[in-house]
Design brief:
about 100 residues, mainly alpha, 2 helices, rod-shaped
Length: about 100
């Protein structure tokens, strides 16, 4: 009976070792895949989300500023133009008959 117990103990240790090895291989594989993806993203020269959001906010603010400046310029140009006096109708003279 003790020999059966020893065989089962050996099998349990073997299975435990195999499971630990499989987990180690999985961890290494995950790290390798992560590194490859990070390298690919770096090579593609992609922008991090935080930088994109910051740049987008700056562009929106600049667009608002440009629109406000366009309104001011239009108002200044309108104020600078001389106002045309209303045209008077030319007096029609009747020819003496």
């Amino acid at each position: 009976m003790q020999t059966n117990s020893k065989v089962f103990d050996d099998l349990a240790r073997l299975a435990s070792g195999a499971l630990g090895t499989a987990q180690g291989v999985k961890g290494e594989w995950d790290n390798l895949v992560r590194q490859k993806i990070e390298k690919m993203v770096f090579d593609m020269d992609l922008v991090p989300r935080e930088e994109y959001d910051a740049l987008r906010a700056m562009v929106v603010k600049l667009v608002d500023t440009v629109e406000a400046q366009e309104v001011k310029i239009a108002a200044l140009e309108a104020a600078q133009k001389p106002k045309a006096a209303p045209r008077k109708k030319a007096a029609t003279t009747k020819k003496a008959e």
